[in-house]
Amino acid sequence: MSVRAVTRGRPTSVVADYLALTKPRIVCLLVFTAASGYLAGAGGTIDVAALVSVTLGGALAAGGANAMNCALDRDLDGLMKRTRERPVAAGRIPPAGAVGFGLLLNAVAGAWLLRTSGPLAAGLALAGSAWYVLVYTMWLKRRSSQNIVIGGAAGCFPPLVGWAAATGGLDGTALVLAGVIFLWTPPHFWALATLLRDDYRRAGVPMLPAVASSAETARRILRYAVATLAVSLLPVAWHGLGLPYAVVAAAAGIELVRRAEAFRRSADRPAAASLFHYSLAYLPIVFVAAVLDRTIA
Fold first, then answer.
1. Per residue in 26-54, pLDDT tens?
2. Burial 169-204 (b: 16+ CB within 10 A, else e)
3. Which residues on neighbouring strands pair with residue 13, listed in sequence order?
4. In the chain, N or C: fewer CB atoms in 10 Å?
5. Where are the alpha helices (DSSP H) in 43-94?
């Protein structure tokens, strides 16, 4: 295989294309939540080698799932302005190569996490990849406007992987942190999809903003935002997380609800953009608060 490929006059290295298959920006967020899960689970007793191991394993698993997604969604990606330059959609990497690369990354991730972080962490990481590829990409994405609600549950797995690596098990606090991601995903992604509605319609993907009105989308976003705020505060009830976390999570959640309500009132693109950009900050704020609370307490 040539080490250089040219697309639309722009040279791109094969190495860079295989890296792009993993969707590094998405992987960074997933690795952050996995590391946060580990740090929150470990509390004040942190093993740096174990933290590095779980973040590496999580990155490999997530990157592998993303590579397979690029292969399976190549026809849709080719129709959307945002994704048409992805390596498989643009014809720079063959679909079989992307699938093989994704499977290899997941095999390495599973073996690595099994050795360094335990069977539960390894199993959760591979389950997250399977959910993203099989449930979201292959089953729901093209069939249901609820695709990102159910399929987006794949994003819940990284903090559970981290927590399991730190403690050898899971508890209510770990499940709540995963639940926050589950409930946060629709407001985050539907706000983005509102901005990209034409792309999704062009590709025939039934993402909610592409098949429902902005007003209906905004109403559903608001419900999920309120649920995100409520669920984020549950661990305080059983002292899984304390008052410092509660103050930060409440403030961050109220702002999420405020922006969702602003979008409900106006149902326009500026309000959707404001909500989307804030949602990018919301998750790090809440997870850092959880880590600091568990570490300092």
1. 999 999 999 999 999 999 888 999 999 99
2. ebeebbbbbbbbbbbbbbbbbbbbbbebbebbbebe
3. 4
4. N
5. 48-72, 74-79
| Cα atoms in the Cβ-side hemisphere of radius 13 Å centred on 104 | 8
* pLDDT tens per residue, range 86-119: 999 999 999 999 999 999 999 999 999 999 999 9
Average pLDDT over residues 167-190: 98
Residue where the block lists tokens 């609600």: 149
How far is it, in rounded angstroms, from Cα 32 to Cα 34? 5
What's the first-to-final CA gap in the chain, in angstroms? 55
Three-state DSSP class for residue 152: helix
What would the pLDDT profile of 271-295 be if each residue is shown by its tens digit? 999 999 999 999 999 999 999 999 9
What ranges in the chain are assigned the alpha helix state H?
A: 14-21, 24-42, 48-72, 74-79, 95-116, 119-130, 147-150, 157-167, 172-195, 197-203, 208-211, 214-232, 243-266, 269-296
Residue 197 confidence (pLDDT) above 80? yes
**Token pair 């093209």: residue:** 142
Report the alpha-carbon distance of residue 148 to residue 141 in Å, rounded: 7
Instruction: Using alpha carbons, list the distances in angstroms from residue 187 to 21, 205, 223, 247.
Output: 25, 18, 9, 22
Distance between CA atoms of residues 168 and 185, nearest Å: 27
Per residue in 31-51, is it b (16+ CB within 10 Å) or e — as a string? bbbbbbbbbbbbeeeeeeebb
Taking the CA atoms of residue 269, residue 273, residue 276 and residue 281 in that order, the dihedral angle to the nearest 10 degrees is -160
The H or E element that residue 10 is part of is strand 10-13
